[in-house]
């Protein structure tokens, strides 16, 4: 099962267009600050355009691709050591291309060489990249709501939460040791991020060996369920790589639940967006049931009934259970698919 890439591609095209527009407008600003009147305005617009195509084409399309994966896995400083020279190289390259297109309008001897040219571009890229990085960390929806102050007072929203954790994590940690286990978790969180992004999920938090993903609740929308099994498929495709690096084939289990939650910005020295409510508590208890009953993905029967049945996924009744911290008994179901030949089995955590 593959989730359509159209939404991800549309997002990247939108991001590329926005960043390119910023760079185009920055060209005339640079011209006013540093160039003499002999350089026409249209040239600075062209310069911003070509430079933006090169820089943001690399940042938006090359880095997130499989070709940029080794760079993205580097720590921050080594990653900058690779990325910054590539960006700086785009400056003389863009000027040289413009010179060829416009019959040497500025002369080859006048191609960008002064430090302020490179500092200006680096400052522009750094600010734009910082905004993009913040957006990736907290999500564009949350960032927009923070900017308008929506979460200064608690707000109730209808959300769906998907809890995913690494099955058999206790045994894996004992086998690998703390350092190697943390490397495994870092790789695991890195790899599942792309699948979550494709499904337009928001990563709310990493907790221990698990991750909490959330979506706005839409009756009938089964994306949280299909996302879970898409992550299973991704791990199955990469099991040989994990086996070679860590000696294990990772498997996930999880729980999904939806309903009203209260959302608010909390803290002063360190701000955070937090969710409160029985919906989140129920999702955590359902994850305990997934482990206890050795199922891949568990939900309440009421929540499962609110979804359009995903193709190829069956819903199996599990009966009534008492969820810790909640009153009464809750009817549970498990989502599953026919076991694929050669797929790794889940162990108890």
What's the topology here?
Elements lengths: L5 H29 L6 H22 L6 H4 L3 H26 L13 H24 L1 H8 L7 E12 L2 H8 L1 H21 L3 E6 L2 E7 L6 H15 L1 H8 L5 E15 L5 E5 L1 H15 L4 E4 H5 L8 E8 L8 E7 L13
Parallel strand pairs: 4-6
Antiparallel strand pairs: 1-3, 1-4, 2-3, 4-5, 6-8, 7-8
Helix pairs in contact: 1-2, 2-4, 4-5, 5-6, 7-8, 8-9
Q: Could you tell me how far the N terminus lies from the C terminus, measured between alpha carbons in angstroms?
A: 26 Å
Radius of gyration: 25 Å
Strand count, sense and barrel status of the largest sheet are: 8 strands, mixed
The proportion of residues forming helix, as a percent range, comes to: 40-55%
Q: By CATH's scheme, which homologous superfamily of the largest domain applies?
A: Nucleotide cyclase, GGDEF domain
Number of domains: 2
Query: What general form does the structure show?
Result: elongated
Secondary structure tally, helices: 12
What proportion of the residues form beta strands (DSSP E)?
Answer: 15-25%
Model description:
The structure is a single chain. With 349 residues, the protein is an alpha+beta fold. The chain has 2 domains: 6-138, no CATH class; 141-336, Nucleotide cyclase, GGDEF domain (Alpha-Beta Plaits). Helix content is 53%, strand content 18%. It has helices at 6-34, 41-62, 69-72, 76-101, 115-138, 140-147, 169-176, 178-198, 223-237, 239-246, 278-292, 301-305; strands at 155-166, 202-207, 210-216, 252-266, 272-276, 297-300, 314-321, 330-336. Strands 1, 2, 3, 4, 5, 6, 7 and 8 form an 8-stranded mixed sheet that branches.
Short description:
The protein has 349 residues and is an alpha+beta fold.
